[in-house]
Amino acid sequence: MATKDERRAQLTDVYHEARACTRCPELASTRTQVVFGAGNADADLMFVGEAPGAREDEQGIPFVGAAGKLLDELLGEVGLQRSDVFIANVLKCRPPGNRDPLPAEIENCSDYLMRQVALIEPRVVCTLGNFSTKLLRADPTGISRLHGQAEIRVIGERAVRLYPLFHPAAALYTRSLLDTLRSDIARLPGLLELALPEQPEPAESEEPVVPEPEVAAPAPEPVSPAPSAGSEPDEPDDRQLGLF
Ligand code: URA
Question: Average of pLDDT values for 101-126?
């Protein structure tokens, strides 16, 4: 089992990989930058939105526009801050003109989201709106029927409580959706207190286990020390990851 620091380092590697991604040629040529996700790399609670908008594309951080401010406010009402949670999106690049994500783009990008879930190891995953709900439930049922109902779902190899919520952008303009989102979010602290769902057996590795040689290993080459968890990011762009 990987330690917290190892998972965080692997998440940073996935971030570096995603930052250079060109799987969707149109998105790669129109984005300002990849918006990987930000927050606590060891969070119990993860949010998954749809795709970055203009503000997010500019700043490289998810949910920094009006919908993000509303999300921050509603989280604050139940005593949660950004540094407690990890926020990601189905797509890591802004679709031009904020159009809907295309099926091929969702497919291209889903591996990054699966690896984020596997490395962050959340207990509760809140899907925000239809795109993330349909993707993570692998089912076309819409958010209006599912919001506020937690269920245990396996995402990749991780069993979590999946908790669909209305997208905060929808709640910005419709009072009744705002009230519903607020009361659904009010149930989050209780969900976070529930026991971690029973985890599936890890998939059998296809790789044969190679026994360690019994000879003494040569002395390792000296390497420069890895930055510790609390140190400054080594590249300016790493700040966008916003890991706490
Ligand atoms: N809407 C989303 O779905 N994601 C963001 O990051 C911002 C707005």
Answer: 98
Concatenated DSSP letters of 151-220: EEEEETTEEEEEEEE--HHHHTT-HHHHHHHHHHHTTHHHHHHSPPPPPPPPPPPSSPPPPPPSSPPPPP
Closest atom of ligand 1 relative to the 90 alpha carbon: 3
Q: Is residue 155 part of a domain?
A: yes
Number of structural domains found in the chain: 1
Burial class (CB in 10 A: 0-12, 13-18, 19+), 170: middle
Whether 236 is in a domain gets the answer no
Q: What are the beta bridge partners of residue 152?
A: 161
Which residues have C-beta atoms less than 6 Å from ligand 1? 49-53, 56, 62-63, 65, 67-68, 89, 169
Residue 102: pLDDT over 90: yes
Using DSSP's 3-state secondary structure scheme, residue 89 falls into strand
Which range marks the domain in which residue 37 is found?
A: 4-194
Residue 32 counted as domain residue: yes
Please name the helix (run of DSSP H) or strand (run of DSSP E) that holds residue 128, with its range, or none. strand 124-128
Tokens of residue 210, six digits: 């190679």
The mean per-residue pLDDT over the stretch 200-229 comes to 54
| Sheet with strand 85-89: strands edge to edge | 38-39, 85-89, 45-49, 124-128, 158-165, 151-155
From 34, 36, 72, 89, the mutation candidate for ligand 1 (largest count of ligand atoms within 8 A of CB) is 89
**CATH code, domain carrying 142:** 3.40.470.10
CA of 234 to the centre of ligand 1 (A): 27
pTM higher than the cut 0.70: yes
| Atom number of ligand 1 nearest to Cα 55 | 7
